[in-house]
Hints:
2 domains
Amino acid sequence: MRDLVLLIVVGWCFLQAFRRPWIGIMCWTWLSIMNPHQLSWRMSTMPLAAAIGGATLIGLFISKDRRDYSTSRESIVLMMFMAWMCITLPFSILFDESYEWWKRVMKIDLMILVSLVLLHSKRHMMLLAWVLVFSIGFFGVKGGVFTLATGGSYKVWGPANTYIEGNNEIALAIVVVIPLMRFLQMQMQAKWAKVTMTCCMVAMAMAALGSHSRGALLAIAAMGLVLWWRGKNKIVGAIVMVVVAVALLSVMPAEWWQRMNTIKTYEEDASAMGRINAWWMAFNLAKDRFFGGGFYIWTGSIFQMYAPDPTDPHAAHSIYFMVLGEQGFIGLFLFLTLFTMAFFTAGTLRTQGRERPQTQWLSDLGGMLQVSLAGYAVGGAFLSLSYWDLPYNLVILAVVGKRWLDRKEWQREAEEPLIYWPEFLKKRFEKKKAIPPP
């Protein structure tokens, strides 16, 4: 049954992508972030994202939908980063393996650029936020309920065969999405909707703790600090955060506390020392090779060449050292520049959006994007998620929001429904609405 439902949804999006390619962007993001086909029985190996991406690219050129090819500083830096990865590819130590990863990263970044061309309205930004929240919230809320039911005795894991399969990765994704949930909650009017979203955010936080990820704990702390700083009533906000934190932490078992305490004694923890060994390897490699080592360097043979302990190969476990080792110092500079610019662009939305009632929602979005980016910056220091879509979608929201604000779209953009109904459903609803009551 789930396969049939998924096939119908993806099939409808595929057809709509030719006429309205922004719908293809939403579906691509959903498939790429959530990977719902990995939850199906027979569609896990089907190239659904590729089909949607292809239809969206065709729709980009043949549809009559509005397109915006203007550039921003973030899009220019992203294109420079993509160009640099193309330059470094021939210098990869293990070219064949690096080439496979390069193709995957280029597809993701290309669709990010296409998104910047196709998305332009408030409806687009709100829908993109909802897609991101639903895609990760599905696993986060479920993981939070699981953690509460088991007393935190088992780890929360992400969907298999995805970027966020590991407990550390799904935890960081959850941390990044919680502020977007708060943004959507700030736009809600119904009390029941706000209460429901609060429960979902608490469950998400519980799932992040239930992952037993030390990086996630630090990311939650950083996110909470920025969220408190952005709040209007800091005293009440501090009290609420302390009460929620105490309630969540009281559920966690003794083994969770023992693992978190290793943050203070990382010298005695084999996993932590393995990460530091990988970081030194990446630094030594970048010093020796101007173009980096390519996308596939976390192997025993390369550790023997550059690591302090050549017998202990590890994954990067850091977005910063991952880019440094793979793309060199220039690649790291471009990577940091991109997200730093996005952070300050979000800050501009936060300050300028509050100047008028029509743009207050944009101020809320900018503030929460800064909270999400802070969580990614801190949690990413311990996780290998440098090229995954989700953080780049935060950049999309910041760039499109700034463009919307600069062009004073609120003066001419009519209120549009958040959901685009198929024509046959819309006609049916309109027909029912036209029938007078008895």
